[in-house]
Amino acid sequence: MKKLENKTVFITGGLSGIGKACAIAAAREGANVAVADLAADYADEVIKEIQQENGKAIFIECDVSSFDAVEKAIQKVVETFGSLDVALNNAGISGEANKVGDMSEEGWLKVIDVNLNGVFNCMKHELAQMAKQGSGSVINMSSILGKVGFATSSHYVAAKHGVIGLTQTAALEYAAEGIRVNAICPAFIATPLLEKGGINENEAMMQGIVSMHPMKRLGTSEEIAGGFIFLACDDSSFVTGTSLEIDGGFLAQ
How confident is the model over 24-71, as pLDDT tens digits? Predict the structure, then answer.
């Protein structure tokens, strides 16, 4: 029996990196998969890849920072598949690198709007649907930077700390309604988001990032997907309000 057989999974930021790996893993476990993302130009290619694992997969173009867009996306999921059983709120951006005193207002607000407000927008509509059903699992993508600081990334750090607070609060509010809410805290993972930050182009910076992890390597999207499947399925039926660290030992230091 597959772990997510006949379940419906909604994943934001699902066309690349961690989101894509989680979508493929969910389909492999028998789920109907709805992938939401901004970048629709290569959506067909990714959806075909997911459908190779399970034919029931759709793409929804959605800006998570838009409250109304997220509401419409959730409605589309339910109209298509009949329910919403698992939600992975994964969409996120890195933003400009600056000290707090040098951070632009625009740069701050942009990251907060996607990485924190976007998670709230999704949770608001996902939890309303799951409450109607009396069951569900919400997984929010936080970060190791949701638990520690990191110079020049105040907006990202603040947002990811906020995601953990949202996760814990919603877990308390919905535990009695059969809904579990958890977070995942990855360390630095080899993804397109990391590449956009220019880390791959700077060997010294890359080695510095790698050296922060006791395992002396970056994580993979597939390793994060393994944690996602655990939190999504009944293997974690007594787990709620937690932040699962998948970080190569980063936070143990």
Answer: 999 999 999 999 999 788 899 999 999 999 889 999 999 999 999 999
The count of domains in the chain is: 1
In a domain, 30, yes or no: yes
- Whether the predicted pLDDT of 197 surpasses 80: no
- By annotation, the residues acting in catalysis are 156
> How many C-beta atoms lie closer than 10 Å to residue 217's C-beta?
12
Provide CB contacts within 8 A for 19, sequence distance 6+.
Answer: 11, 12, 13, 35, 37, 88, 90, 91
Would 184 be classed as within a structural domain?
Answer: yes
Any domain includes 62: yes
* Cα–Cα dist 221/56, whole Å: 22
Q: CATH code at 64?
A: 3.40.50.720
Range of the domain at 170: 8-189+220-252
**Cα–Cα distances in Å, from 107 out to 12, 102, 144, 145, 155?**
21, 10, 21, 18, 8
With respect to residue 199, please indicate whether it lies within any of the assigned structural domains.
no
Contacts of 200 (CB under 8 A, 6+ apart): 194, 206
CA neighbor of 147 nearest in space, from 201, 183, 196, 93 = 183
Predicted structure pTM score = 0.96
